[in-house]
Specification:
- The structure is a single chain.
- The protein is of the alpha/beta class.
- The protein folds into 5 domains: 107 residues, no CATH class; 69 residues, Trypsin Inhibitor V, Chain A (2-Layer Sandwich), CATH 3.30.10.20; 63 residues, Trypsin Inhibitor V, Chain A (2-Layer Sandwich); 63 residues, Trypsin Inhibitor V, Chain A (2-Layer Sandwich); 84 residues, Trypsin Inhibitor V, Chain A, CATH 3.30.10.20.
- It has 7 helices and 19 strands.
- Strands 15, 16, 18 and 19 form a 4-stranded mixed beta sheet that branches. A 3-stranded mixed beta sheet has the order 2-5-3.
- The C terminus is likely disordered.
């Protein structure tokens, strides 16, 4: 009981001081097995238990009251001799006086609270463990669903749709067959053969001696099966007629031949090889050239290049190809006037026979609008003219009143402003010049034109007064 009181969860049920613990230990050693409650605290009783009635201690007589019984002070039994005090005894009323009195009252011994140990603790532990396992499993399942919904797989990308096994086609084994037989067998199975030719002295000519994927493997319908075909001891030109331009070029180059491509009209689909030279299975040394003709489609022809021809020659060339011809002129800074710039549609473009083709003829350099330089200083006006692609022509000086704002400015220009002319056209200008005054006559200064020469000014002195003779 003392140990349980020491381990009580509620601090109020423990020993408040070490002296109290020591006192209980001494009482226990003396034979007392009941622990009294602390002063001012009601005894605590276990749940479901009722306190037992304590045996009353021997009564101690007290002095009776005169005439009526009374209750005297409570007496306690002395402790056993030679031992420690046994703690407080149950209180008993004083001995009654003479005559009838109330029945004796007893105070039960003090009890302390003792926690009840549950015997099903292991069951709760097992249930908590199972609940934790279920919770972890549920969280893991939810995490897997979230991860899968993001489309993340081993390749960190959306999972590719898989083809059902019953939708796959088993690749026939065509090794040892001629290329014609292998081609027919693969195509009948829904597969696309792709041959490449190699010189192999141990395998008969035009015989398949390798394939990828191998026979027996299951692949999707329409997939390509690479075939390696023997050219025998002597190289021969592989057949490429009926294939598209890219595949035919690859087959010939893998066989060791150079490829020359020409185009022409045909009833075959555009881009399909309609002819080859030399023909298939012709003996030809490796490194030689094989010419293939590629169809441009039914009723189509390439626009011929007529640049560098005269207009009459270009019209005749296009008309001979079955085109209708029209002329259109455009300015050009690079093509001289009257020569052909290009055709529309461009040369080399496949078009239907009978289409109208425009011949674009150069109209010479583009026209330039003459800037308005009147009122500008001569240097500023000259810069504006040159920036427009024109040239300053004749500069004429005209006298103006001294101190006038027109001194050094362009007073007139020829041709007039905003007129469109060809590039490098000359623009003549008239520039104002200050004049000197002698008497009633205005005498212009003697400006010099470009290069030190005076332009547009009378230098003879006619009409001017004679200078006085210095000799007198």
């Amino acid at each position: 009981a003392i140990i349980l009181k020491l381990l009580a969860k509620n601090p109020a049920n423990r020993y408040p001081k070490a002296e109290d613990l020591r006192a209980d230990l001494q009482r226990y050693l003396a034979g007392a097995h009941s622990i009294p409650t602390r002063t001012g605290q009601s005894p605590r009783v276990r749940t479901g238990e009722r306190p037992a009635t304590a045996s009353p201690a021997p009564p101690v007589p007290a002095a009776p009251a005169a005439g009526r019984p009374r209750t005297g002070p409570v007496a306690t039994a002395p402790p056993p001799s030679g031992g420690p005090p046994t703690g407080p005894r149950a209180q008993v009323p004083a001995a009654p006086g003479p005559g009838p009195g109330p029945p004796p009252q007893y105070v039960p011994p003090a009890y302390y609270y003792e926690e009840v140990h549950r015997s099903d603790g292991w069951k709760r532990t097992v249930l908590m463990f199972l609940g934790l396992v279920v919770l972890v499993a549920a969280l893991g399942f939810l995490g897997w669903i979230f991860y899968d919904s993001l489309g993340l797989g081993d390749n960190n990308g959306p999972a590719e749709p898989t083809t059902p096994d019953n939708a796959l086609i088993e690749v026939p084994d065509v090794s040892g067959l001629s290329y014609g037989e292998a081609d027919a067998l693969l195509r009948s199975a829904g597969l696309e053969p792709e041959p490449s030719y190699q010189v192999n002295t141990g395998v008969p000519e035009n015989t398949v001696f390798a394939q990828s994927p191998p026979g027996g493997q299951r692949i999707e319908e329409g997939a390509t099966v690479a075939l390696t075909v023997s050219q025998g001891e002597t190289p021969r030109v592989p057949p490429v007629r009926g294939r598209n331009r890219v595949d035919a070029t690859e087959i010939l180059r893998s066989a060791g031949y150079e490829v020359i491509v020409i185009e022409g009209t045909s009833q075959a689909e555009a881009g399909i090889v309609v002819g080859q030279e030399p023909s298939s299975n012709t003996e030809l040394a490796l490194g030689e050239a094989v010419t293939i003709t590629v169809s441009t489609g039914p009723g189509q022809i390439f626009v011929p290049d007529v640049r560098g021809q005269t207009l009459i020659q270009a019209i005749q060339t296009l008309a001979d190809q079955g085109f209708r011809v029209a002329e259109r002129r455009e300015p050009s800074a690079t093509v001289p006037e009257g020569e052909i710039i290009e055709t529309d549609p461009l040369h080399g473009f496949p078009v239907a026979v009978g289409l109208e083709i425009y011949i674009i003829v150069s109209d010479g350099p583009p026209l330039v609008a003459i800037p308005d330089v009147q009122g500008l200083l001569f240097d500023t006006g000259k810069l504006a003219i040159e920036r427009a692609g024109l040239v300053v022509g004749i500069v004429t000086f005209e006298p103006v009143e001294p101190g006038s704002s027109d001194v050094g400015r362009i007073l007139a220009q020829t041709p007039p402003p905003n007129l469109e002319v060809s590039a490098e056209t000359e623009v003549d200008v008239v520039v104002g010049e200050s004049a000197e005054t002698e008497g009633d006559q205005v005498v212009p200064e003697s400006p010099e034109g470009e290069g030190g020469e005076t332009e547009g000014i009378d230098q003879t002195g006619a009409g001017l007064p004679e200078e006085p003779d210095e000799t007198g």
